[in-house]
Amino acid sequence: MTNHTPPSDDVDDHADDAAYQTEFDPTTDSVCEELITAVATLNDVDPTELALLSDFVDPEALDALFGPRATGNPREANGHILFNYDAYHVKVDSNGQITLHQPEFGSGNDHLR
Question: With left for phi above 0 and alpha for psi between -120 and 50, is residue 107 left, alpha or beta?
């Protein structure tokens, strides 16, 4: 189940950036699908209109890192990964949270559409 949180100005290291959070279930959801859905929702576009995620990060590796083990058991790791996806700074936590930061306009990263 996905839980969307409205933009905030005071999350993590990017206090001056707009932030958006969504949650995923690491035992059943694909982090890549949740990320793409969140970015499409933020930009009010169809997911097929977005840049390819594979141009920024290996989707299979991302899903494998945060998904359950091959046995179906959840991973017992505590960590996160940071990367850029088009105009967004992305943080994925092992607890099932995706945080997206879009720097303020004028930073050179406002080319999403």
Answer: alpha
